[in-house]
Amino acid sequence: MKIEGKAFIITGGCGSIGGTTARMILERGGYAVVFDVLDEAAGTAKVKTYPHPERALYFKTDISDYDSVSAATTAALAAIPKGSLAGGVHCAAIAPGADWSHHLKDSVPRFAKVLQVNVYGTFVVDACIADAINSQYPDDGPFAPRTTEERGIIINIASVVARPVPARCITYGPSKTAVLGISAGMADFLGPFGIRCCTVSPAVVASAMMSPDRIPYFETELDAATIFPRRQSDPAEVGQGIVFLIENSMMNDFELRVDGGWRNSSNWAGPKDPRANALSLE
Ligand SMILES: NC(=O)c1ccc[n+]([C@@H]2O[C@H](COP(=O)([O-])OP(=O)(O)OC[C@H]3O[C@@H](n4cnc5c(N)ncnc54)[C@H](O)[C@@H]3O)[C@@H](O)[C@H]2O)c1
């Protein structure tokens, strides 16, 4: 699918991977419609620093709130050229981090929060974007003939810690496992409408999510756990994967791992409690 002239909603588009993706879409002649939590003025100012700012739009949105996503999607449809919405790249998520505790119950409130943002938010974002794409076409009801035209693509961002989930990601990891499940279900559901759905799973990306105090730990882990290259990815390397999935119409129901051959599954090395060797990111 060509990006030129098409509009894509990019959640988390003020962040590292989302911001890079927005820039790449703009550079290829597309419209980047960014949903993020910054207020309207700050978010708009940010996306207007991207290339081709005349095609960059911003809507303050909380992805964990259905009303917010639904309203932003309606506003986005009204602001872009008629019929141009062709997809979404869902990059917004949280990785809260926590101090280690030997009481798993301490993780329960964080699990609830992560599920609300990363899992419920993914379902809501995908649903609102898919319905918005389909609203540009005649509504033939639930059992319409299968379309042969390509209407669009939705890409969700999971993570290499979606499977297998390490102890240090005891809440964030399963939320990303659920993202893989949501993508698979969406791909099958949306096939008859001509909408593809794929997932990108990065390893460790140089981003705001990766605060400086976490970097020394991750450099050690990347050195031990990846095949090659044993370094953090640049957000642009993830963005290239996203652009490939958009542009190649045969890519559907696919998890693209951009991870340098990441094989880490556990921090269980040596005689100590494995958590003594690892950061808790939950
Ligand atoms: N950075 C990594 O190492 C890494 C690794 C694997 C997967 N990922 C995933 O990649 C995606 C992008 O992460 P990133 O590294 O660019 O992080 P980032 O922190 O730079 O960007 C995340 C963006 O999401 C926004 N956001 C957070 N909560 C939101 C909400 N409720 N509503 C709307 N926007 C919200 C933030 O404001 C931010 O702009 C995430 O899904 C993340 O889990 C990141």
UniProtKB/TrEMBL annotation:
It comes from the Eukaryota. One of its GO terms (molecular function) is 2,4-dienoyl-CoA reductase (NADPH) activity. This is 3-hydroxyacyl-CoA dehydrogenase type-2. It holds the Pfam family adh_short_C2. PANTHER family: 17-BETA-HYDROXYSTEROID DEHYDROGENASE 14-RELATED, SHORT-CHAIN DEHYDROGENASE/REDUCTASE. One of its GO terms (cellular component) is mitochondrion. Keywords: Oxidoreductase. GO terms for biological process: fatty acid beta-oxidation. Signal peptide: none annotated.
